[in-house]
Amino acid sequence: MIVELLVMLAFAISGALLLTAFGFRGWPLLPLGFTAGVATFVVLAFAHALVGTPVSAALPLVAAVAVPGAVWLYRLRSGTAVIPSPVWMVASAALLSAAVVFFWHANLVKYHFDSLRYLIAGSLFHEGHLESLSGNLLTKRFSSVSVIHSLGGYSDGFYLRSLTPLLALALLGVLSWLVFDMVRERRSRALATGTAGLGVLLLVTNYGFLWHSFYINGHLIFGAMFVVIAGVGWFVVTRPDAPAAPALVAAQCVAIGAAVMSRPEGLFLVGAAVVPMAVSSRVSAAHKVAVVSAFGASVLLYQGFIARYTVILGDHVSRDTARLMALGAGALILAGLLALPRLRALVERFQGSVLWLAEAGLWLVLAAYWLRNPEPLEKNIESTIDNVMRGTGGWGPAVVGLAVLVGVALLRRFSNDRQLRFPVTTFLPLIFVIAYLALDGGFYRAGQTGSGNRMLMHVIPLAVLYVMTSAGIGEWRWSRARRGESDRSPDAARVREAVGV
Amino acid sequence: MRALGRLARRGGRPLPRGVPVILLLVIAVVLVNAVRFPDDDRAVHHTAITRADTGDIVELSLGLSNVETTHNVFARLGQIAPGAVVFVTDDGDFRPASNVRARLLGLGLVEDVEVVPPDSVPPHEGLELGGHLVAEGEVWNWPGDARADQPGATWAIFADAGTPEAWLFVSRDDADPRWLFIDTRLLAVPVGQDGRR
Predict the structure, then answer these.
(1) Residue A120 and residue B70: Cβ atoms within 8 Å?
(2) Any chain B CB within 8 A of the CB of A396?
(3) A352 contacts chain B (CB < 8 A)
(4) Is the pLDDT of residue B189 over 80?
(5) Which of A79, A166, B25, B189 could make an S-S bridge to B132, C-beta 3.0–4.6 Å?
(6) Nearest by CB: A187 against B13, B70, B100
(7) Considering only CB atoms, which chain A residues are within 8 Å of B55?
(8) B104: nearest CA in chain A?
(9) Chain B neighbors of A264, CB-CB under 8 A
(10) What is the pLDDT of residues B130-156, one digit of tens each?
(11) What is the distance between the alpha carbons of residues A101 and B147, in angstroms, rounded to a whole number?
(12) Do A134 and B181 lie within an 8 Å CB cutoff?
């Protein structure tokens, strides 16, 4: 338990150093810092696995504290970093420690076959024998789950008992902070408290969320990172007076890395969150370059790791890996191009059309696949209905209820709502297209541990954020009184000034 | 709804139309979720697995004394002790094989380990690998073997022809069978149809 306690404290310290280095303070420092700390560790662990010989899980953990610590010290000397209050530090450490002790003793865990395979890959990482990965483990099971739980090897377990529940709590904290802060600023404290509280209730009464909060897999990790990528990104853009915007952008960047490295399909879903930011005129140039670069670098790192160890295992780098590496490189080039004012202006000019075309294009691609081979899509729709409406997926009525709420939220608008809406509404066509790409005529099966069912967890927290934000600060699309308010808002100019990363 | 509106409006700006409506909808969904939860069939079970209880993995490593660490069981089958038996299934008999082959990004139909009844895999096409696998230590063999009643795991390897994966079948004392994947390219000798002797 001591090892686990130290690991969790290290995650929290890592994220807190990263955020306070850029001036972030306040109670969200604990949940957002913990999430950012986990993400920082994942990115550094993959970087170490790519270049490190021999590999050790302890080194990236030390680096996850040391690197943000060095940045913090550097910025402290220039007066731009902040020191959290001693009361906050003591209270956070006590709270986190109590939670670790509780979850360690409770030892609640859900696992199935895939979980064990993640742990096997993690065991290899822990013991510095990545060259012993099988091809299947390398491409499918060596992920953020493996590298995080590999730290459990320093105690007497294969996994960290408290990691997933703590990340679930951190996710609730980040989500409620985003909703509360935005609604309080736009409406009232009472409404902010109500919407944030209801958002938390909407998640915790969702049985799937509870199940994933104890499940050894990457879905909850992805869901938490997805909220940081899209939600915190939206917050920075929409709240030009957001505290320490560069800190939030830094959190976004490490979350992009962790999400990409959490699931094989992660990069496509992360792309759906990055695209609205890349084309939005509300997002500053520096912010755009940061998130698109983070995306490109993360894809390159993840696929580069797979390529390197594929060669070490004596195999040829697959065409898919090469393509995805090219995608990562392309994103890096795009990030460079977005720094050019003329090109950026051109992209921003068509921002609405780009998103509309992208979403319509996804459905068209899906329709084309369906015309060529209808069975997989029909089976996927059938299994999805089984999972969310007939109880097979273990969600109860929660997903259907949330889908209704998303439908209502779509009738409302709020500032920069595209950034939250786009990754939510493109999710379904995207995972169906991915099924065609990845399964080659196969399909997701119905069942709680079916991959299509588990992937719903990726988007549910973000969908809750979208619904509650829409409830708190949105207005009906047909309302004339405030039509165009968001367009007249001076957000963009102020954000450019505020972010300044 | 008016009360909700008054409460939400307290101390702040006027609420735009629709806020109480959507909040009531959220409350309704929360209540429906809560009423349906907890459900005996869907409760979070207290599944306390520790390292020692992760039997699928640990028992194997305990049973293979020559294998230093757990992962080697899966990745370095070349070190399995003499006497290891590889069973080759008939084509098509092991349906997940085709799914595994088809996967590109890990989204495939990875069947739960429990859903494949052991009986569906005919063990009669055994392939003795003992002479080719260099290792020391004791190995438990297929049930029916003289050592089958020893404590710990019984195991066998199944490989589908043309698939670079094998399935390691692990049966524990509590009769809780598990299937585990192995990359057969790491085997010291080929398995599957090409490897039959």
Answers:
(1) yes
(2) yes
(3) no
(4) no
(5) B189
(6) B13
(7) none
(8) A438
(9) 105-107
(10) 222 222 222 333 334 444 434 333 344
(11) 43
(12) yes
Sheet of B165-171, strand order: B126-128, B85-88, B154-159, B165-171, B178-183
Tell whether A304 is within 8 A of chain B (Cβ): no
CB B184 within 8 A of CB B159: yes
CA B108 to chain centroid? 14
Give the nearest partner residue to A439 out of B38, B54, B108, using CB atoms: B108
Distance CA A325, CA B1 (A): 54
Q: Contact B57/A119 with Cβ under 8 angstroms?
A: yes
Could you say which of A188, A194, A409 has the minimum Cβ distance to residue B11?
Answer: A188
- Hey, how many other C-beta atoms are within 10 angstroms of the C-beta on A380? 23
Question: Parallel, antiparallel, or unpaired: how do β-strands B85-88 and B154-159 relate?
Answer: parallel
ipTM of this complex > 0.95? no
> What is the DSSP annotation of A199-258?
HHHHHHT-HHHHHHTTBSSSHHHHHHHHIIIIIIHHHHHH-TT-TTHHHHHHHHHHHHHH
Do A143 and A124 meet the contact criterion of CB atoms below 8 Å apart? no
CA distance, residue A28 to nearest chain B CA (Å):
23
Under an 8 A CB cutoff, do B104 and A214 touch? no
Chain A residues with CB under 8 Å of B25 CB are 404-405, 408
Helix axes A351-372, A341-349, angle to 10 degrees: 60
Taking one residue from A and the other from B, the number of pairs with CB-CB distance under 8 angstroms is: 243
Partner-chain contact A442 B102, CB within 8 Å: yes
> Does A210 contact chain B (CB < 8 Å)?
yes
Q: What angle do CA A214, A227, A385 make, to 5 degrees?
A: 65
What does the DSSP assignment read for B97-166? HHHHHH-SSS-S----GGGS-GGGS-TTSEEE-GGG----S----SBTBTTTTSSS-EEEEEE-TT-SEE
Q: What tokens does A369 get?
A: 């696949």
Token pair in block for residue A499: 């972010």
Which H helix or E strand runs over B168?
strand B165-171
Q: Are A191 and B19 inside 8 Å of each other by CB?
A: yes
Greatest pairwise CA separation for chain A in angstroms = 66
**Burial state string for A260-276 with b = 16 or more CB within 10 A and e = fewer than 16:** bbbbbbbbbbbbbbbbb
Cβ-Cβ contacts under 8 Å, B32 against chain A: 397, 401
Tokens for A177, please give them: 């902070």
**Backbone angles phi and psi of A318, in degrees to 5:** -75, 160
Say how many C-beta atoms besides its own lie within 10 A of residue B128's C-beta.
12
Cβ(B168)–Cβ(B155) under 8 Å?
A: yes
Q: What is the pLDDT of residues B28-86, one digit of tens each?
A: 999 988 876 554 444 444 443 333 333 333 333 333 222 223 333 332 233 333 333 33
Q: Which of A117, A439, A443 sits opposite B103 (nearest CB)?
A: A439
- More confident call, A349 vs B111: A349
Measured between CA atoms, the residue of chain B closest to residue A320 is B104
Q: Are A416 and A362 in contact (CB under 8 A)?
A: no
